[in-house]
C-alpha cells in the first residue's frame, strides 16, 4: 500500500491542473447558458486575436532562439572553455533560481533598470550621451518583453543543456583529432549533430515557457502590447465587454500550442538520450 503516499500529490494534480484544464476545454465549446457551440472557436480567427497569437509566437521564438544561443555558449564555456571550477556551482545555483523568477518582481526589476527612468537608462544618458528612447528602444515593446523573458530563458537553457554537454565523451574528441579534424570541424561534424536534438528540444521547451508566461507580460506592458495572455486576461476579468467563453477558447488554443511544443521537446529529449548513452 505504499502508493497511498502518492495520494496527496495526485489530489493536487487533479485539483490544480486537470480540473482547471478540463473546465477550460469544456468552456471553449459552451455558450453562457451552457449549450454546445463552435462560435467561440470561430472567434479565434478574428484579426485582433490572430494578431495576438502571431505576436506571442514571434516573442516566444525570439526569446527562445536568443536564450538557446546565449545559454549554450555560457554552458559550453563553463564546461569546456577552461573557466575556473569554482564558477560552475554558483552559476548553476543562480540558473536554478533565475529560471523560476518571473511575474511582477521581474517586471519591476526591468522597469527599474531599463525603463524610461531606469538606472541603466539614466546612466547611459547622463554619462555617455546614449539616449535609449531616442534610439527607439522601449521596454514596453516587442524587444523589451523579449529581453525581459531572456532573464529566465537563458538560465533554463543552461540547466537543461549542461548535462548534454557533459555527456560528450572525450574519446570522440580524441578520435576526431587523430583523424586530423580541427576544433571547428569537430564541433560542426561531431559535437553539434549529437547535441542538436537536445538543443532543438530545449528550444521547444523555452518556446512553451515564453508562450505561456502571463504575469510578467501583464505587469510589464499592461495593454500596450496585444499578446495572447493579455487579451485572454481582458476577456475573463469580468468587465461588461468581456466574454469568458471566448477567453476559454483562447486559453484552449494556448494549451494546444504549448502541448505541441512540449510533445516535441519530450520526443527530441528521448532521441538525444539515445545518442548520449
UniProtKB/TrEMBL annotation:
One of its GO terms (biological process) is transmembrane transport. Keywords: Cell membrane, Membrane, Transmembrane, Transmembrane helix, Transport. The chain crosses the membrane at residues 51-80, 101-123, 143-165, 186-207, 213-234, 246-268. It comes from the Bacteria. It is found in: Cell membrane. Coiled coil: none annotated. Gene3D superfamilies: MetI-like (1.10.3720.10). It is a multi-pass membrane protein. Pfam families: BPD_transp_1. InterPro entries: MetI-like, MetI-like_sf. Its main location: membrane. One of its GO terms (cellular component) is plasma membrane. Residues 53-267 form the ABC transmembrane type-1 domain. Belongs to the binding-protein-dependent transport system permease family. CysTW subfamily. This is Putative spermidine/putrescine transport system permease protein.
Amino acid at each position: 500500500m505504499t502508493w497511498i503516499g502518492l495520494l496527496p500529490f495526485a489530489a493536487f494534480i487533479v485539483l490544480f491542473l486537470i480540473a482547471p484544464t478540463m473546465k477550460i476545454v469544456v468552456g471553449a465549446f459552451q455558450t453562457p447558458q451552457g449549450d454546445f457551440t463552435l462560435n467561440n472557436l470561430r472567434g479565434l480567427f478574428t484579426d485582433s486575436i490572430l494578431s495576438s497569437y502571431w505576436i506571442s509566437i514571434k516573442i516566444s521564438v525570439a526569446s527562445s532562439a536568443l536564450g538557446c544561443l546565449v545559454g549554450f555558449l555560457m554552458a559550453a564555456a563553463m564546461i569546456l572553455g577552461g573557466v575556473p571550477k569554482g564558477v560552475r556551482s554558483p552559476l548553476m545555483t543562480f540558473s536554478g533560481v533565475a529560471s523560476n523568477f518571473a511575474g511582477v518582481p521581474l517586471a519591476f526589476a526591468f522597469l527599474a533598470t531599463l525603463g524610461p527612468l531606469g538606472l541603466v537608462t539614466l546612466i547611459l544618458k547622463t554619462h555617455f550621451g546614449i539616449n535609449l528612447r531616442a534610439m527607439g528602444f522601449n521596454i514596453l515593446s516587442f524587444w523589451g518583453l523579449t529581453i525581459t523573458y531572456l532573464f529566465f530563458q537563458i538560465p533554463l537553457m543552461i540547466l537543461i543543456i549542461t548535462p548534454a554537454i557533459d555527456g560528450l565523451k572525450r574519446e570522440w574528441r580524441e578520435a576526431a583529432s587523430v583523424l586530423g579534424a580541427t576544433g571547428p570541424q569537430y564541433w560542426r561534424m561531431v559535437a553539434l549533430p549529437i547535441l542538436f536534438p537536445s538543443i532543438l528540444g530545449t528550444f521547444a521547451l523555452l518556446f512553451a515557457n515564453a508562450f505561456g508566461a502571463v504575469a510578467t507580460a501583464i505587469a510589464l506592458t499592461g495593454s500596450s502590447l496585444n499578446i495572447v495572455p493579455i487579451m485572454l486576461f481582458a476577456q475573463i476579468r469580468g468587465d461588461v465587454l468581456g466574454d469568458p467563453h471566448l477567453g476559454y477558447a483562447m486559453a484552449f488554443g494556448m494549451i494546444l500550442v504549448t502541448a505541441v511544443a512540449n510533445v516535441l521537446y519530450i520526443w527530441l529529449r528521448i532521441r538525444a538520450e539515445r545518442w548520449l548513452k
